[in-house]
Design goal:
By secondary structure, the protein is mainly alpha-helical. The chain is built from four helices and three strands.
Length: 134
Amino acid sequence: MLAMSRLRDYLKKRQSELEASAKPLETRLLALRADLASTEAKLSPIRKELHEIEKALQAIGKERDTERTVTIKEAILQTLANAPNGLTSSELLAAMNDDFFEGTLQRTSMSPQLARLLHKDKKITNRGEKYFLP
């Protein structure tokens, strides 16, 4: 019976020690949870606005892409319309990449369209190495 009494005393003492240790930790935990809730409340509208901005930027990007759906032939004609002194094929390619294709147009893609506009469609002319609108 004496051993049971000592065990009970030990357990009660240990219980009191643990409760005393837990009390400031629980207080700190409540403060941290309150701080977290406050931070989440401030962060939520920021995240929402960032999401809306991202959607708007994507829409602008898509709109820009649809504006840029000019064909190579149309780009050639528009570029030459702005070059009354004509352009060589290298100058034409550079200008089209700057104005329409963001550097992605290759000479091998442009050359057949240039030949069609010159020979078949007769929408452009050439004098020497330069191309012009008639």
